[in-house]
Specification:
It is built from 13 helices and 11 strands. By secondary structure, the chain is α/β, with parallel strands linked by helices. A 7-stranded parallel beta sheet has the order 3-2-1-4-5-6-9, with helices on both faces. α3 links the parallel β2 and β3. α4 crosses α6 and α12 runs antiparallel to α13. Bound molecules: nicotinamide-adenine-dinucleotide. Nicotinamide-adenine-dinucleotide binds next to α2 and α6.
Length: 360
C-alpha cells in the first residue's frame, strides 16, 4: 500500500537530485527512475572511480548538469529553468577524514552550498507546490558520548570540520525557514539526518567495505584499523526510503512536517563491530583476508553515534526494513557481481525491487 502510494506520487513528478552522481544520490536517482519520475541531476563531478553512478548507468534517461553549488548564479539559473516539484539536496563534501585535509572546501560546499539553495528559494517567486529535503548527517550532533540515541532537539555542532559544517547547514536551514521560507505557502521543506550507510557501489575513501573490495580485487590482505569499533550499519536504501516518504508527505502537507528535522538511523537491537561485519561478509566473498593494524597513530575516527528515530516512525511511519544479515547480504552480492563483471545496472534495479517488495 505504502509503496503504491510512493509509486503513484512520484510518477511524472519533476524531481531534482542535487548530488545525483554520489553514492546515495545515484541510488536515489535509480529509485526515482523506477517510479517513472522526470529526473534532473546537478553535481560538480563524479566523486569516485569506479562509481555506482557509472557502473549502474544512472545517467540514462535523466537530464544532468555539472554545476558547483557554490556558484550561486549558475545554480539559480538552472533551478529556475527546471522548476522542480521536488528537490533532494545531497551534494556535499561527505567524508570526515577529507574534511581535515580540505576544511575550506568542506565548509564552503556543505554550508555555503546549502545557503545558496535556501537563498534561491527565498528570492524566487515559487508559483507551484514544491517540497525540498535537505540531507545533512548524524554527525551534525555534538558527540557527547551518550549511550541513548540522539534526538532531533539535541545540541548541534562538534569539533571536526565535516560535522560542524553539517551542523551549520542545519542552523542556516532553521534560520531561513523561520525568518523567510515558512511564509511561502507553496514551499514545504525539512532536513534529514542519517547515519553511515553501506550498500553496493560505494568507493569513497576510508569506508570499510570499499577497502574490503579493493583488497580482494588487488589480492591483498586488508589492514583493519578499528576491529572492535561498532557502527550503526544500515543499507543505503533505508534512509533513501525515508527521504522519499518525507518529500512526499511534505508535498502533501501532512503532519506539520514543514520546517522539521528527521533522524534516519538503524533499528537493530545491537550495534555490530567491524570484525562481525567482516565475518558476515566472508560468508559471501570467501577470499577476503585481513590483518589488524597495530600502529598506535591512527587517523581520526568519530566515536559511535546512535540516533533516536521515533519521530520518523511516528510522523512518517518510517523504519528500517532490512535486518543486519539482509543488509550485509545485499551489499556483498552487489560487490560480488562487480568482482565477476556482471551487469550492475540490472542488479541495482533488482535490489531496489527486492527492497520495495519488503515495504508493507
Ligand atoms: N554516505 C554516508 O554514509 C552518509 C552518511 C550521513 C550523511 N551523508 C550525507 O548524504 C549526502 C550524500 O552522501 P554520499 O555518500 O552520496 O556522498 P558522495 O561523496 O558519494 O557524493 C557527493 C555528491 O555531491 C556532489 N558534490 C560535492 N561537492 C559539490 C559541489 N561543490 N557542487 C556540486 N556538487 C557537489 C558530488 O558531485 C556528488 O554527487 C551528503 O550530504 C552526505 O554528507 C552520507
Amino acid at each position: 500500500m505504502k509503496l503504491k502510494e510512493l509509486n503513484n506520487f512520484y510518477k511524472n513528478k519533476k524531481v531534482l537530485v542535487i548530488g545525483h552522481t554520489g553514492f546515495k544520490g545515484s541510488w536515489l536517482t535509480a529509485c526515482l527512475k523506477n517510479f517513472k519520475s522526470r529526473v534532473y541531476g546537478i553535481s560538480s563531478n563524479i566523486p569516485t572511480k569506479p562509481s555506482h553512478f557509472k557502473l549502474s548507468r544512472i545517467h540514462k534517461n535523466i537530464n544532468e548538469y555539472r554545476i558547483d553549488i557554490r556558484n550561486y548564479s549558475k545554480l539559480k539559473k538552472k533551478i529556475n529553468q527546471i522548476k522542480p516539484d521536488i528537490i533532494f539536496h545531497l551534494a556535499a563534501q561527505s567524508l570526515v577524514r577529507n574534511s581535515f585535509e580540505k576544511p575550506y572546501a568542506t565548509w564552503t560546499t556543505n554550508s555555503l552550498g546549502t545557503l545558496n539553495l535556501l537563498e534561491i528559494l527565498r528570492e524566487t517567486r515559487i508559483q507551484k507546490k514544491t517540497s525540498i529535503v535537505i540531507v545533512t548527517s548524524d554527525k551534525c550532533y555534538k558527540n557527547v558520548n551518550q549511550k541513548k540515541g540522539y534526538l532531533e532537539t539535541d545540541i548541534l555542532g562538534d569539533k571536526e570540520p565535516y560535522g560542524s559544517s553539517k551542523a551549520s547547514a542545519e542552523l542556516i536551514f532553521y534560520s531561513y525557514f523561520h525568518s523567510f521560507l515558512s511564509k511561502k505557502k507553496m514551499l514545504n521543506l525539512a532536513t534529514a539526518r542519517a547515519g553511515n550507510v553501506i550498500g553496493g557501489g560505494d568507493w569513497s575513501k576510508d569506508r570499510i567495505l570499499t577497502d574490503v573490495i579493493r583488497s580482494v580485487k588487488n589480492k591483498k590482505k586488508l589492514m583493519i584499523r578499528y576491529p572492535y569499533s561498532t557502527r550503526p550499519w544500515q543499507h543505503v536504501l533505508e534512509p533513501i526510503h525515508g527521504y522519499l516518504i518525507l518529500a512526499k508527505d511534505l508535498y502533501k502537507n501532512k503532519n506539520k512536517l514543514n520546517g522539521e528535522s528527521f533522524n534516519f538511523g538503524p533499528s537493530f537491537n545491537k550495534n555490530y563491530s567491524v570484525k562481525e561485519l567482516l565475518i558476515k561478509i566472508k560468508k559471501y566473498i570467501p577470499n577476503i583476508k585481513w590483518i589488524l593494524d597495530k600502529n598506535k597513530k591512527k587517523p581520526y575516527e568519530a566515536g559511535l553515534l546512535n540516533l533516536n528515530c521515533k519521530k520518523s516512525l511516528r510522523l512518517l511511519k518510517w523504519k528500517n526494513i532490512l535486518n543486519f544479515e539482509q543488509t550485509i547480504q545485499m551489499t556483498a552480492l552487489w560487490y560480488l557481481s562487480y568482482l565477476k563483471n556482471h551487469d550492475l545496472e540490472n542488479l541495482t534495479l533488482m535490489q531496489i525491487k527486492d527492497y520495495e517488495d519488503k515495504i508493507v
